[in-house]
Amino acid sequence: MTSIKSGHVLVLGGARSGKSTFAEKLVKASGLGMYYVATGRAWDGEMQARIDEHRERRGADWQTHEEPLELATCLEAIDAPDRIILIDCLTLWVTNLMMEERDMAAEFERLAAYVPQAKARLVFVSNEVGLGIVPENRMARDFRDHAGRLHQIVAEKSAEVYFIAAGLPLKMKG
Prior knowledge:
Layout: E1 9-13, H1 19-29, E2 33-38, H2 45-58, E3 63-66, H3 71-78, E4 83-88, H4 90-99, H5 104-114, E5 121-127, H6 138-157, E6 160-165, E7 168-173
Parallel strand pairs: 1-5, 1-6, 2-3, 2-4, 4-5
Antiparallel strand pairs: 6-7
């Protein structure tokens, strides 16, 4: 298992690729206080089951904060140099922002401005959605485009970037 040397980390992958499990192992190996920021909302029973699975897998060793919209504010509130914060996941955050008709550029800029000044190490998890076919509807295309822009911003601010496929990490940066 690899460990975080310094700086922030972005972990990308497809659905059920093993990205959250990989990120959780990175965090556990750090030896720092483990914090988890969950951005998901249970819009239906299937999503609730996924959230429950993540909670059960993490166990009681994590300080969990559920924040679907105000990500930068939440991170600022729990930031400290002896902590590592896992944010899971950016694409769910994008979905929540879109559903609330928030200003995407402003929200991304707020997060981008916070990341370099964070005292804690940050580990971002997100779904790579830009590798498939072009979506047929406008909202899905906007989502794909927003996620791609956000990934570029976070990757640029991260010391390490991993792409996970079939549970296997490919280190892309760092």
